[in-house]
Amino acid sequence: MSTRARRISQNFLALSVAQLGSRVFTVATTIHLARTLGVENFGLITLAVAIVAYPGLVVRAGFQRLGPREIVRHPEQVQALTRTILSLRLLLATVAFAVLALLVWLLPNADLTRHVLLLYGLSLFAMAIDLTWVFIGTETMHYAAASEIITQVVMAAGALILVRGPEHIEIVPLVYLVSQFAGMGLVVLFYVRHFGPLRLGIDWQFSKPLLRAAWPLALSSGMAMITFNFDTVMVGAMLGTQATGYYGAAYQVIWMPSMLIAIYFNALNPSLDRAFTEGLKSIETLLNKSMRLMGVVGLGLGVGGTLLAVPGFNYIYGLEYHDAVMPFQILIWSIALMCINRNYRTLLISFDRERAQFRMMGIAAVFNIVLNLLLIPLFGLPGAALATFFTEMSILVVGYIYTQRYIGRVPFNVALSRIGLAAVIMGIILLVTGPMHLFIRIAVSIGGYAISLLMLRAITFKEVQHMIMAWFPRRTARA
User: Fold this and answer.
1) What are the backbone dihedrals phi and psi of residue 73, each rounded to the nearest 5 degrees, phi first?
2) Alpha helices (H) in 240-324, listed in sequence order
3) Beta strands in 181-313 (DSSP E)
4) Residue 127: half-sphere exposure toward Cβ, Cα within 13 Å
5) What does the angle CA 220 – CA 88 – CA 357 come to, to the nearest 5 degrees?
6) Which of 89, 115, 246, 479 has the largest CB neighbor count within 10 A?
């Protein structure tokens, strides 16, 4: 197995193990908050997080993706890049929080909403000192993984211990703040240990080209944020915080697979970034495998999530959140589409096509806004979910077109029919095992899906063996 593929697998393992471990705490926190706060207050928390995400984009400013790319290309300039990006982010965080505070102050007769929004807004400064991008660029992702675990452990412990009823709603953003600063503080310590003291100062040698590359990427992230959570904001504005509570419960369940998808592409990014100098041909095999793997994950999530939604939500949230089931059954298919379209989005950035990425996400954002405005009044929560699904479909179509135009031919998925047949077999297994316990159904269906994929040669035993060898390398392989 190639060194590059081994490195990707090891990085993906480090991040995914951390994410899976931390998500255990996240799931426990979410279930506790949803049950303890009630639908109305849980909806307010969900809405506040969705709103603060927008000034958060100003703070991130595209550097979370651009920083690792620049480190891959200029590994000797880590300290100068860090100093410049950190300084710019702190300035942006100050401006973003001031604007948010002004807007919150203008809210009429909403003291609780004001307090919650301002407390969550302080997390903008934790975003500013987030240095995980440095370790993604140097491909030492276990440091970023450790930070994620600490963040979620602190959040879970604080919520489970301190939040005991709806009256404790203002404690939730306080616990969130402490957890964010704990995780980011750990990353800062890792940085100081490996790269020396952390300093501030804007190096104009780096800042000018960085800003030129960052603005289309930052705007693209803004467009992507609209496609991701504008539906939540519009549900809150049109249908109220109770409806937002239901919709937020659905989103919390799809958040875990979406985060794992993001981790996978974080691990893949450095290899795609190198292809900028080596040519698309150098990663052709890698891309084909990535398309196939993500197709397996996407169709499996779509079929499994749809058929297990009712018993799953009853088990996780209880009957109080039954209205979240149908939105989830639609949203899970948007995650299936994301598995594929992220390949194209990532390639465009790796090949310096930030403006094409921006145009693509701009089209998707406008599409999303229009669909939400049309579909939410007509269909309520399912309408918001449908808007997200069709938006992800538009990203797939436009991303495919732009990749072929600007980079080269990247096949959609040559094994899609075989993967689809395996997914149908998994669906039949889920239907047949309906009377069984939820976890037995999950285990049996996953096993049946895996066997079907192997028998249909959508994946091969050799590929599985290579993946295992990459995750658990011999000592000589690391030398």
Assistant:
1) -80, -30
2) 241-278, 284-316
3) none
4) 26
5) 15
6) 246
